[in-house]
Amino acid sequence: MNRVYIETERQDLFDVSIVIAMRFHISGNVTEQALRNAFERAAESHEILSTKVVIDAEGKAFYEKPEKENSVNDLADSDNTSSNKIFFEVNDWQSIIHREEKKRFKIEEGEFIRGFVYESGSEESGEGVSILFMMHHLGGDGKSLVYFIETFMNYLVDDGSKLLSSDRSDKDGLDNSDVRVLEMRTIPAGDISEKALRDRVGPLALVPKIYNKKWLKEMDSKEEAGKNEKRIFTFSDLDEAYDEYWKDRESEIKEYVIAPETMTKVLEKCKEWKIGFTAYFTTAFLRRMARKLDIGYAVDAREDGNKSMGNQATGISIKYAYNYDKSFRKNAEKVQSLMSNKLEDDGARNFILPFMAAFEPTLVDAINLEHAGAFRSKTSKSLANMLGYGKKTKDLSITNLTKLDIPDTYGSLKLDYFSFIPPVVSYGRNIIGLSTLGDCTVLTIHRIK
After folding, report:
1. Could you tell me the sign of the dihedral formed by the alpha carbons of 4, 9, 14, 20, in that order?
2. How many Å apart are CA 256 and CA 72, to the nearest integer?
3. What residues contact 352, with CB distance under 8 A and at least 6 apart?
4. Which partner for 438 in 103, 270, 408, 426 could form a disulfide, CB atoms 3.0-4.6 Å apart?
5. What span, in angstroms and rounded, lies between the C-alpha atoms of 363 and 356?
6. 179 with 154: CB under 8 angstroms?
7. Where are the beta strands (DSSP E) in 245-377?
8. What is the pLDDT along the chain (449 residues), one digit of tens a residue?
9. Helix ranges (DSSP H) in 14-58
10. CA-to-CA distance for 386 and 392, rounded, in angstroms?
């Protein structure tokens, strides 16, 4: 792999609030050097983290990997310094997130992930450490970061034989011969010719066609008028968008731990009612809000169960208002029915991927810059409003990672707390993350104040 086209995930490229966060606590005895080494090895183990994002002269974007790094040994022996770093902090995790989400990831330099150790006991006490990982969405979806953490833990527990031996206490002394590289995986859009797109998304296939024509015409007319409007945006434009968007904004995060006994009772009801926990939770939220809500759900699109990093998610949405004349169970069953109808229909489940990929890439960039307040055009404003990048965002955007398919115990080390904080994406108002590891279930709500 030298270049991979960025198409179904193009909307993440110029989004100014697109950072996935996960925090976890490790109980057991670990050292600072072991943490540094494990992070470095984990980054080397995932191909996407050795790429960078480039935008060509036509406005197309790609993951690009240096040609010299075309084998495991080349990667392991490379003397280039990774842009993905782990830091040791004295601040609390919320302060770190609020600070770092305003700092643009330099994806054009290969920076996709940052790690922060923000609490640690003494090396002798065995009290363990608390760690926060933050990842740009172009580095992968939520599951990708989970699998990165699993890789990190596997290298961290190998502290007796390789990571902590005295002659391997620095980078130059590391033996990288056992680094196995997982190839990056993304979901291509497939055939998005006019006819194929119509077959896949129906009459809505006209929307990209109409807006692309408007966009190109508008940009051409401005160019002819000497207004020098940019049709191809650069990372300098993204820097300006970050400055504009975050200058007077703050996000807030609320985190709730759901007691194991509560989860057991709820899951028993879900089993009896033949619904999923996501539908149960959605219904509880609907009952409280007392109005029709537009709700989006992130959906894992890994059909082969791979653990590679890369954006392998799609999404569905439903609209529903709680019916107070019916029981909670009846409402929950209706919500599940609405969700299942979308999930079981391949066209509905994968609708968003070819639909978004059919827009001119620079127009997709423009709607993000429009949302950030760093660009204005008649076409991008209209499309941004239609797609929910303006005031009509999704009321809820829910990502339930469910019970994580990674171990909680690694040799003498144990993950005894895990929390997933999704990004405050431009098209959502209340961003909800759910995850369960062992008997630890955590709900987070992330939103712009």
Report:
1. negative
2. 41
3. 314, 315
4. 408
5. 10
6. no
7. 251-258, 293-300, 313-320
8. 689 999 999 999 999 999 999 999 999 999 999 999 999 999 999 999 999 999 999 999 999 997 764 433 333 333 446 799 999 999 999 999 999 999 999 999 999 999 999 998 755 556 799 999 999 999 999 999 999 999 999 999 985 334 333 333 343 334 555 677 999 999 999 999 999 999 999 999 999 999 999 999 998 887 666 666 678 999 999 999 999 999 999 999 999 999 999 999 999 999 999 999 999 999 999 999 889 999 999 999 998 989 999 999 999 999 999 999 999 999 999 999 999 999 999 889 999 999 999 999 999 999 999 999 999 999 999 999 999 887 778 899 999 999 999 999 999 999 999 999 999 988 888 999 999 999 999 999 999 99
9. 32-44
10. 8
Q: Which two tokens stand for residue 54?
A: 């480039």
CA gyration radius, the chain = 23
pTM score of the predicted model: 0.92
What is the Cβ-side half-sphere exposure of residue 383, based on CA atoms within 13 angstroms?
A: 27
- In 3D space, the residue among 106, 144, 119, 99 whose CA is nearest the CA of residue 301 turns out to be 144
CB contact at 8 A, 76 and 179: yes
The answer to whether 332 and 273 have CB atoms below 8 angstroms apart is: yes
What does each C-alpha distance from 51 to 89, 108, 244, 309 come to in angstroms?
27, 9, 28, 12
| The three-state (H, E, C) secondary structure of 192-229, written as one string | CCHHHHHHHHHHHHHHHHHHHHHHHHHHHHHHHCCCCC
Q: What is the DSSP letter of 159?
A: I
Question: What six digits make up the tokens of 219?
Answer: 């940009």
Q: Could you report how far apart the first and last alpha carbons of the chain are, in Å?
A: 41
- How buried is 336 (Cβ within 10 angstroms: 0-12 exposed, 13-18 middle, 19+ buried)? buried
